[in-house]
Amino acid sequence: MQTAKLKRTSLYVSGASPINMIQAAFYNEDCLVYDLEDSVPNSEKDDARLVVYNTVRYHRPANKYVIIRVNGIYSEYIDEDLEAAVRANPDAIRIPKVEYKEEVIRICQRITEIEKAAGMQVGKIEVWCNIESYLGLINAYEIATADERVVALALGAEDFTASMKSHRTKEGLEIFYARNALLTACRHAGVEAIDAVFSDINDLEGLKEDTALTRNLGFDGKTCVHPRQIDVVNSFFTPSKKEIKYALRVLQAVEEGKKQKKGAVTLDGSMIDKPMELRARTTLAQAEAAGINVEEELL
Amino acid sequence: MEIKQAAMVGTLESSDIQISISPNPSKGISIELQSVVKAQFGDAIVATMTEVLESFGIKDAIVNAVDRGALEWIIRARMQSACCKATGTRFDWKGEDK
Predict the structure, then answer these.
(1) Model pLDDT for residues A268-283, shown as the tens digit of each residue
(2) Does any domain span residue A4?
(3) What is the pTM of this model?
(4) How many CA atoms lie within 13 A of A293 on its CB side?
(5) Distance from CA of A3 to the nearest CA of B (A)
(6) CB atoms closer than 10 angstroms to residue A234
(7) Does A176 lie in the same domain as A56?
(8) Which of B13, B73, B93 sits opposite A87 (nearest CB)?
(9) Measured distance CA(A232)–CA(A234) in Å, rounded
(10) Which residues of A touch B48 (CB under 8 A)?
């Protein structure tokens, strides 16, 4: 079960492929990203824009958080992409290769202008910023706080490593700092952090290892490039029964301690501190967002 | 609006439609459709294409379409692209606000 609030998985689907767009609605991804950028050849930009516009505006899939990734801020396509994307009224517009807060401010102003011109509710469309260079990473906090529309930053590892002159590996040591720096900026700004794709769609074991790291670091979700990655990634961001039960026991112990006016409480011989309580609350929030009835887990 | 050049958009992949438009000066609209679902949905497909032609104010054109089971909004999008290319115009996004 999914809710519109979950952002565990974001699946890119090319605006140049109607068959992929139609099929994408039937997978379990939380966020469906209709792409106008890298997956669309320059000769097909105008065609893809109209296909994505008509799909999102008139036949958007239910129970998905719908995103349109527009072309680059300095590309010849961005103006018309925004005209189409805003009028399509998605949940969010995803901006690639953001490096400065001024870029976000300019794009958000343009979104507002189009919303007003089209007679739409102003401010409803959210913005995701892709961080894909060392400059974007350095300015991540400013980007995340540039406008109230910004709700998420997403790491783009391929372009980031290219900008760093580093080599992309499956182990991902070359993006370890970037992942942590992006997360830190997102947590401070109060926006969600979305991790980079795992590019080898045939290596599901590698995907599991990579996603375990993604989750343990604290990311809220991960971008996927192929439908077969979705269920694996979702599973890592959905708390297990054991985790839910433990979280419930932690919070019960905290409540019991408050009733008894105890300064410190313990569970299974270990002291429960504030971070443990916070983690327990996060676990339950993730479980509830995934449609799990946490009260039933106690039975 | 006048057809200035022949144009072709779309693909022959499943769920898509390939549409080509060419000039047909002073001879009205001629639509030729090939589709595996022509018996069931041929009239609806032609109606969608006709509606888009009318929205562009195109009165004379030869349209050839090869449908591979495209849904209505894909047909509409492909037809809009074809009309833009054939008339040499950009899509009127403000027209969508009506």
Answers:
(1) 888 888 888 888 888 8
(2) no
(3) 0.90
(4) 4
(5) 26
(6) 21
(7) yes
(8) B93
(9) 6
(10) none
Contact A54 B94 (CB under 8 A): no
Of B13, B81, B94, the CB nearest to A19: B13
Instruction: Check whether A254 has a pLDDT greater than 50.
Output: yes
| Domain with A50 in it | 9-236
Both A36 and A170 in one domain: the answer is yes
The two three-digit tokens of residue A272, written as one number = 């429960």
Whether residues A113 and A214 share a domain: the answer is yes
* Chain B CB contacts of A55 below 8 Å: 73-74, 77
Same domain for A140 and A155?
Answer: yes
Residues A260 and A151 in one domain: no
The domain spans of chain B are 7-90
**Residue positions counted in chain B:** 98
CA distance A254 to A57: 47
CA distance B90 to B98: 18
Q: Kindly state the average pLDDT of the residues B38-53.
A: 96
Verify that A154 and A278 share a domain, yes or no: no
Spatial neighbors of A169 by CB under 8 A, at least 6 apart, are none
The CATH number of the structural domain formed by B7-90 is 3.30.230.10
Q: Count the domains in chain A.
A: 2
In order of A2, A93, A192, A288, A292, the CA distances from A13 in angstroms are 19, 14, 21, 28, 28
| A163-215 per-position pLDDT tens digit | 999 999 999 999 999 999 999 999 999 999 999 999 999 999 999 999 999 99
Q: Is the pLDDT of residue A3 over 60?
A: no
Contacts of A49 in chain B (CB under 8 A): 91
Nearest CA in chain B to A44: B9
